[in-house]
Amino acid sequence: MPAALVWFRDDLRLDDQPALQAALAQEYAPIPVYVHAPEEEGDWAPGAASDAWRRRSLQALDAALRARGSHLTCVRGPTLAALQRLASATGAEAIFWTRRYEPAIERRDTELKRALRRAGLHTESHNGALLVEPWDVATKAGDPYKVFTPFFKAAIARMRTPRTWDAPAHLPPVAFDDAAAHAIDAPAIDALLPAPKHAWNRTFWSHWTPGEQGARDALRAFVPKVAAYPEGRDLPAMEGTSCLSPHLHFGEVSIARVYATIAQSDAPKDARIAFLRQLFWREFAHHLLHHFPRTTDHNLDPRFDDFDWARVDDAQLDAWKTGRTGIPIVDAGMRQLWHTGWMHNRVRMLVASLLTKHLRMHWLHGARWFHDTLVDADLANNTLGWQWVAGTGADAAPYFRIFNPTLQAKRFDPDGAYVRTWVPELGTPDYPPPIIDLATAREAALAAYARR
What we know:
Layout: E1 3-8, H1 18-25, E2 29-36, H2 48-66, E3 73-76, H3 79-90, E4 94-98, H4 103-118, E5 122-126, H5 148-158, H6 178-184, H7 189-192, H8 212-222, H9 229-232, H10 245-249, H11 255-263, H12 269-291, H13 314-322, H14 328-340, H15 345-358, H16 363-373, H17 379-390, H18 405-412, H19 417-422, H20 438-450
Parallel strand pairs: 1-2, 1-4, 2-3, 4-5
Helix pairs in contact: 3-6, 5-12, 11-12, 12-17, 14-15, 15-17, 16-17
Domain Photolyase/cryptochrome alpha/beta: 2-131
Keywords: Chromophore, FAD, Flavoprotein
Cofactor: FAD; (6R)-5,10-methylene-5,6,7,8-tetrahydrofolate
């Protein structure tokens, strides 16, 4: 049986893994590989929280492969040289992978595919991350959508019912002779992604279990909660969301598996649709990033290119990052982020609004911090979210829509349970006064908008 490299990236699973399935269907013996080359991701290389999660997820994937008779081979980049070296050392005739949609990665993968095919390797990429590919949805004029609702209608009309495959029970063993092992030079996962020296992420793992089993458990736990999702998703003190975002980002569960599981659940139809609609917001984000790659660093709406953003106040920005603004629900969210690597979506909107509107700092300052500290730091979702709140992106909330965090807390955390969890010193001398007056800051933001 000829061999093929199956190159794992942000698809760290064996269940419903299209690259692995394609290799097996074409009767190749798969050689699972991971190439560590964060420098090839440009200005948005994975942050610290992502690296901490990926390390554990790769370990989980390797364990799952070993339980099936195989194992994961990890190597350092550059990616093209690494894949060519692996193919030469193992005699692999083909390479399979699933697609990614970040701008730097899309450009690199296009060049990789050409170079590998010129070298005589059969090369295939597959959709393993989206329900509908970005090039399959367009307006009647052939343009990409910039407004969610018409995008949702068009995308769901183009979507085929997801077909999912179970993980194989067994895989062919991967064995290298001494010469091949020397040529491959595969370090251990801990050498590629060492554990943080100061264990700053130690509190994450009481909340999360990286890897495919953790993803399955999270999906299974969410199914009984779907019925309450339409109301529960907005209440940060309640475990009403799926908490699948990091598992989806790292591909530990397929989007098709999540869609099929929820669509076929016993929850009321309106509840199922409410959640599935959120999956399409994720689709929308990836479609936008594919069609508008500059939006990772530039406003989608060029009218904001000359907006009067405030000069960065380092003390205020640091207070925002560390949850010491004196605005309880904002501080609660930022502390939840620091201690768990995640923040409730309703609160993400509030902390982003405070930074971009009350403090009037450019949304990139927040996007960079989230990218480094979130375990679900998905470049597409992060870009869409920050530009949406700032009013500069697709289907964005208008800039003059400024969330009042005090009123939002009364509405969505009415008994203060969420705030008390993360800001236990509230009401004591240890809690700082507000760094800004909300009403005055709101007027300054509106004045800046009027000068636009």
